[in-house]
């Protein structure tokens, strides 16, 4: 059963049609590369899946059941997590502090609640170990590399036992070595059976980890096919309009 099915998703902002009847399906443990030029509708589609706003028409189905999200917390409750391009991390907190922000482990001794720092640190260490990341629980985020920051953001999704992770340009503006680290993190999530939607302008990264690639142009899906049956040249043509459909 697909973890996510989008059926005829359209989104209008007044007279502007941001998306027009987009269909997509995603299996557990599958990586879907979502590509398109600026303004193609990628971010709008991700925001609909993440519960930022509802579609104008169409249906979202999670594990065979139609769902309606009114706010992001509704999507998170159903196992959908987002790793934003800016990562949404607090530079003044440790890795552990960021992972458990808003989800702290605490012991209640009436009438007080005390944070259980060791339990959170130990759990953060376990998550980094599962990702084979060198990030340490007590490291301050402001001192981290781009790859380490991604590890913190991805660990946060694992803490909530996500079924679907939406990743927005995770390899933008980081070094070649850090890109390799992030791609390895994506593979680790895939190995855990987590479905991933990867938005990226970096063609080599998409072809390195994605099972399928979908291309949006002017709010419409113009192609969806396995990466093994496509090429960077074909996808570039689809993005620019040199190739109309595939």
From TrEMBL:
Domain ABC transporter span(s) in chain numbering: 4-243
Keyword Thylakoid: no
GO molecular function: ATP binding; ATP hydrolysis activity
This protein's UniProt keywords: ATP-binding, Nucleotide-binding
InterPro entries associated with the record: AAA+_ATPase, ABC_carbohydrate_import_ATPase, ABC_transporter-like_ATP-bd, ABC_transporter-like_CS, P-loop_NTPase
Family per record: Belongs to the ABC transporter superfamily.
Protein name: Monosaccharide ABC transporter ATP-binding protein, CUT2 family
């Amino acid at each position: 059963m697909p973890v996510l099915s989008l059926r005829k998703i359209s989104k209008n902002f007044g007279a502007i049609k941001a998306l027009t009847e987009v269909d997509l399906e995603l299996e557990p443990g599958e990586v879907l590369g979502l590509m398109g030029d600026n303004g193609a509708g990628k971010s709008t589609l991700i925001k609909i899946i993440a519960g930022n706003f509802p579609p104008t028409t169409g249906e979202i189905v999670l594990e065979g059941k139609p769902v309606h999200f009114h706010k992001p917390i509704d999507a998170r409750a159903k196992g959908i997590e987002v790793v934003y391009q800016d990562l949404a991390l607090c530079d003044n907190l440790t890795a552990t502090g960021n992972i458990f922000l808003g989800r702290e482990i605490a012991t209640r001794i009436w009438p007080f609640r005390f944070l259980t720092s060791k339990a959170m640190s130990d759990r953060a260490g376990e998550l980094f170990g599962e990702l084979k990341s060198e990030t340490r629980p007590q490291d301050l985020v402001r001192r981290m590399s781009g790859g380490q920051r991604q590890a913190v953001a991805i660990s946060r999704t694992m803490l909530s036992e996500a079924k679907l992770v939406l990743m927005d340009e995770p390899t933008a503006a980081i070094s070649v070595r850090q890109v390799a680290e992030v791609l390895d993190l994506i593979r680790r999530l895939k190995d855990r059976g987590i479905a991933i939607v990867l938005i990226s302008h970096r063609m080599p990264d998409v072809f390195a980890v994605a099972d399928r690639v979908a291309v949006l142009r002017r709010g419409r899906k113009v192609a969806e096919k396995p990466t093994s049956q496509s090429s960077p040249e074909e996808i570039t043509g689809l993005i620019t309009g040199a190739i109309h459909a595939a």
